[in-house]
Every structure is written in structure tokens, then in C-alpha cells.
């Protein structure tokens, strides 16, 4: 069965071009011209991935991302103008998994959608390529690879697949500094063509879920000029 993509774009011409391009790549596409319509469609039948424009009439793309994230862990790819760096960071911190900048080549857009779908269905590899079955514990956090769940004080934490894979990569290499480039390679894929803002935004979001005080992290530490490490 073809992967289901929901594209949210208020410009009819762009929305149609995206639908045709994705359908040519074998995807099944539904369209929404606003965030409100998108939420109705998601509630009716959640897609495999949401592709949304940041600048939407009425409810904007940032709020739409937050509303989706409140109930769903499906991949979200946002579209933003290349010059709107603030929008990119704000969208990622709201809960988007990835972004594409305008103007974009439709073939590249399809490749980015496919990469996010692949990542959503793949657990981050261990360093030796062998799946780990023993839980990893640090502080009051317990990460269970075999169940793909993270517990805090015995209670499940809601993480996206990207967040889970990022935490997993840090936990497997606890005490070792991992550069942003290495995390991009390990979590987003060696052939990923994004930038390190993805890592920083996801780290900040992850800290809000695993740290007692995200402003003073004790688990996921920043090593200035080098990257991040997990402290057990």
C-alpha cells in the first residue's frame, strides 16, 4: 500500500504541483488548504507524513505542528522560505522533524519525504549493528530499545521517532562527545542533506522531556565547540 501524505498549502498551484510530484513517486496524497482542514483530515485518517507550509492563513504552521504533536508522533516536514531562519528553528522546536526551503526542486522534495518516512520506520542502529535488548538507565530515565519506549520515573514519555533515535544514539554512547555532524549522520542518515540546526532544535526539545530543569541540563550536556554527550 502506498504511503499516505497530507500536504497543507494555501496556494492552489503549489499544492497541485506537490501532489502531482509525489503521486509520480508512488505516494498517495491528500490536500488541505488550511490548518483547520488538515486537523479534520488527520482526525479522520492519520497520514504517514504531513508536509506543511509555515505561512498558512488562520492557524499558522507552528500552531498546527503543536496541535498535531499533542496527539500524534507521525513525521512532520515543514516548508519555509530559505531566508526565514527564525521560522525554521521555531518550527523544529514546535515539533517538526525536518524542513524544506523554498524555492525547492520537486524531485528533492520527494527525496526528503521518502527519507523521513524511512527514518520513521527505522530504529537507530547500535554501534556494532546489533539490536540492544537490555534497558539503558540514566537518572530516573529508562530507555527500552526492544519496546522503543522511554520511561521517566516509571511513566512513559511521548517521543517522536526522531527524538527516540537521538536519545538512543546518545545513550548508547554515554559519556562520549558526539558532534552535530556525527549525530546527523547516525540519526538522520549518512546521505542526509540538512544542517546542524536540526540537531540543536531536537536536543532542546528532547531536554524538555527528559531533564528536570531543561535550562540547567544534567543528562544531555553541551560540550562547547564539540557537540553533545549524555551523562549517566
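^ C-alpha cells above, recovered residues below v
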Amino acid at each position: 500500500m502506498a504511503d499516505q501524505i497530507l500536504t497543507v498549502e494555501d496556494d492552489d498551484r503549489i499544492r497541485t504541483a506537490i501532489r502531482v510530484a509525489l503521486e509520480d513517486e508512488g505516494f498517495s496524497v491528500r490536500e488541505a488548504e488550511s490548518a483547520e482542514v488538515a486537523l479534520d483530515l488527520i482526525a479522520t485518517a492519520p497520514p504517514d507524513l504531513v508536509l506543511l507550509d509555515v505561512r498558512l492563513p488562520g492557524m499558522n504552521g507552528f500552531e498546527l505542528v503543536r496541535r498535531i504533536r499533542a496527539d500524534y508522533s507521525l513525521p512532520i516536514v515543514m516548508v519555509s522560505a530559505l531566508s526565514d531562519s527564525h521560522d525554521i528553528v521555531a518550527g523544529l522546536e514546535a515539533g517538526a522533524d525536518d524542513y524544506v526551503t523554498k524555492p525547492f526542486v520537486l524531485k528533492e522534495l520527494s527525496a526528503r519525504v521518502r527519507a523521513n518516512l524511512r527514518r520513521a520506520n527505522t530504529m537507530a542502529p547500535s554501534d556494532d549493528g546489533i539490536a540492544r535488548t537490555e534497558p539503558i538507565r540514566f537518572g530516573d530515565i529508562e530507555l527500552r530499545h526492544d519496546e522503543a519506549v522511554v520511561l521517566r520515573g516509571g511513566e512513559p514519555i511521548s517521543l517522536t521517532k526522531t527524538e527516540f533515535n537521538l536519545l538512543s544514539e546518545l545513550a548508547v554512547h554515554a559519556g562520549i562527545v558526539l558532534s552535530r555532524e556525527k549525530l546527523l549522520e547516525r540519526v538522520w542518515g549518512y546521505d542526509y542533506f540538512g544542517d546542524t540546526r536540526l540537531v540543536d532544535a531536537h536536543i532542546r526539545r528532547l531536554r524538555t522531556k527528559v531533564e528536570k530543569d531543561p535550562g540547567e541540563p544534567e543528562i544531555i550536556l553541551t560540550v562547547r565547540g564539540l557537540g553533545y554527550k549524555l551523562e549517566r
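The mean pLDDT is 87.
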